[in-house]
Amino acid sequence: MYRSHTNGELRIANVGEVVTLAGWVQRTRKMGGMTFVDLRDRYGITQLCFNEEVNADLCAQANKLGREFVIQVTGKVAERYSKNANMPTGDIEIIVDTLNVLNASLTPPFTIEENSDGGDDIRMKYRYLDLRRSNVRANLELRHKFCLAVRDFLDSKGFLEIETPVLVGSTPEGARDFIVPSRMNPGQFYALPQSPQMLKQLLMVAGMDRYFQIVKCFRDEDLRADRQPEFTQIDCEMSFVQQDDIIKVFEEMTKHLFKTVRGVDLGEQPFLRLPWKEAMRRFGSDKPDMRFGMEFVELKNEEGKNIFPEGFAVFDGAKYVGGICAEGQAVYTRKQLDELTNFVKSQQVGAKGLVYARVQEDGSVKSSVDKFYSQEVLQQMKEEFGAKPGDLILVLSGEDSNKTRKQLCELRLLMGERMGLRDKNKFALLWVVDFPMFEWSDEEQRLMAMHHPFTSPKPSDIPLLDTDPANVLADAYDMVCNGVEVGGGSIRIHDAVLQAKIFDVLGFTPEKAQEQFGFLMNAFKYGAPPHGGLAYGLDRFVSLFAGLDSIRDCIAFPKNNSGRDVMLDAPGFVDQKQLDELFLQSVAPEK
Ligand code: ASP
Q1: Does 23 score more than 90 pLDDT?
Q2: Which ligand 1 atom minimizes the distance to the CA of 533?
Q3: For a Cys-Cys bond, which of 296, 351, 555, 579 suits 344, CB 3.0-4.6 Å?
């Protein structure tokens, strides 16, 4: 028997018991004739005590222990003289009788403490050591609990978890595929699924009725803090449903997860449902952070509103002028305002400049455009914002309304952050609904599916497919939490004729559509039920629960920003022989 208890288990009630513990040496302290060792495992830390006067040999052995040595000890549980209220085992210690070194350890390259001295790169290289840190481990524990709660809930609603293959053909989520050469089919490639989208639809054709899967998806995209080349979805699909049915089930699941995993009661109220267009207008984003207000106010728009007389060329030439009112921020110094201007002009945001106005104590407005507008105009602007003395008004303008709104969104989020309005322990959930079916791609010079090509248009908009496709709305919905898209999905097309029409609008020839999606369209000819679904980004959702800035911290072995696993040193080159078997040429640089 390696151990009788874990290191998080013993309490004052165990005093007097003889126990055996095993674990890693967190640290050793020598105090006079006494040596104390903190012994760690997944469950906690227990203090071991060695007394030179009682057993000098044993104490000498303890003094030789290095950090991260794996040891086993037997001893008696004793009450501590100086208790540690911050530790669950802080009332007791073990008076050790026998010490057995199970394995020595090199000195770890960084401290295995909550606040480690190791930078990101080194911690990723030695991720197995990083995972020994209690806060990193806690994220994985949370993830486990989250998945368990998802499975419990969906099982209780009759969902079946069904695995789908990883070696598939190209799937249409709009990113680049990872491809895998097939040795048995020379010159041909599998693609790794960007999601099991088509497979889950086929499962509906197969009559599975309610499907889910906690599943890896692969997208070869440029990486950011909330993206990984492989990530996990909670993928779901249901038959004989409309949008409302899906929203109801998954709103209930979300509330269940918040309550059981995060201890947050989201209440009885249904989540807000915000049409996409309104989300863009009020927040400049299809995933608005609704933990705080600071909504956009339009001063000039494409519907003919304009509070400004001619005089300031920038506004005169703009199609959209809008801004936010940051309450109580008129105290911003010139330097801080310059910083904000630099921020909006940065490449990441891309605005041309920032106009600001401070509301003075006497109610007058002092702004960066004073010389172009009378106090009367500035007062009207103040009224539009409902601004009070002490408030700071920040205004952007541009040629393209939605582009300017997106820039303003960045500014709103920054101000929200600075004003402490983005509290990680507060959760604001909503559905964004009524997405456009298509969006224009400048790059491809054609309409692209905003979700994916299997999304159903709103039935009432179907006639518009012929006359005005750009204005067709989709039966699509995203669940948003704190400015993060945690999930999204749609009602699917289940009619082969309508599906063919959508491919046509998307610029696929019938032959091309048949080549890429023929199996799905064929399946639809054999009695496809009406169906729909959605997928949650598991990593993002868990990160929100854990209050993390990056999804990496809740993934056991994540990749870095260049898509590398620095621990495994992957991707890597392979032998010429392996390439030959796959009929691939080496492009490896000369060694
Ligand atoms: N397959 C979609 C995605 O990965 C989700 C869905 O429509 O169910 O975003």
Answers
A1: yes
A2: 8
A3: 351
Q: What pLDDT, in 10s, does the model give residues 140-188?
A: 999 999 999 999 999 999 999 999 999 998 877 788 999 999 999 999 9
Question: Could you tell me the two tokens for 247?
Answer: 């929203």
Calpha distance 7→500 (Å, rounded):
62
Mean pLDDT score of the chain, rounded to an integer? 95
Q: Which atom of ligand 1 is nearest to the CA of 237?
A: 8
Best mutation site among 159, 168, 173, 437 for ligand 1 pocket (most ligand atoms within 8 Å of CB) = 173
C-alpha 534 to ligand 1 mean position (Å): 5
| Pocket mutation for ligand 1, best pick of 197, 210, 239 (most atoms within 8 Å of C-beta) | 197
Preceding amide of 571 cis, omega within 30:
yes
Report CA(440)–ligand 1 centroid distance (Å): 20
- What is the β-pairing status of strands 230-239 and 34-41? unpaired
Q: What is the DSSP string of 50-89?
A: EETTT-HHHHHHHHTPPTT-EEEEEEEEEE-SS--TTSTT
* Burial tier of 531 (Cβ tally within 10 Å: 0-12, 13-18, 19+): buried
Q: 3-state SS string over 226-280?
A: CCCCEEEEEEEEEECCCHHHHHHHHHHHHHHHHHHHHCCCCCCCCCEEEEHHHHH
State the residue for tokens 């449903």: 241
Summarised one tens digit per residue, pLDDT across range 311-352 is: 999 999 999 999 999 999 999 999 999 999 999 999 999 999
Closest residue by Cα to residue 236 from 317, 150, 308: 150
Q: How far is the CA of 168 from the centre of ligand 1 (A)?
A: 16
Supply 513's token pair: 């559509």
User: Which residue CA neighbors atom 8 of ligand 1 most closely?
Assistant: 534
Closest ligand 1 atom to residue 194 Cα is 4
309-314 long-range contacts, Cβ below 8 Å, gap at least 24? 309/373, 309/377, 311/372, 311/373, 312/369, 312/372, 312/373, 314/352, 314/353, 314/355, 314/397
Contact 323, 394 (CB under 8 A): yes
Backbone angles phi, psi at 384, to 5 degrees: -55, -40
Record the tokens describing residue 142, joined without a space: 């949370």
What confidence tens digit (pLDDT) does each residue in 433-484 have? 999 999 988 888 889 999 999 999 999 999 999 999 999 999 999 999 999 9
SS3 96: strand
Which tens digit of pLDDT belongs to each residue from 355-377?
Answer: 999 999 999 999 999 999 999 99
Percent of the chain with pLDDT over 70: 99
Do 472 and 465 touch, CB atoms closer than 8 A? yes
Ligand 1 centroid to 174 CA: how many Å? 11
Cα-flanking dihedrals φ and ψ of residue 70, to 5°?
-100, 120
Residue 392 pairs in a beta bridge with 326, 358
Please give the distance of CA 398 from its chain centroid, rounded to a whole number: 30
Supply the residue whose CA is at minimum distance from atom 7 of ligand 1: 489
Q: Is the pTM above the cut of 0.85? A: yes
Give the binding-site residues of ligand 1, using a 6 Å CB cut-off.
Answer: 173, 195, 197, 451, 488-490, 533-535
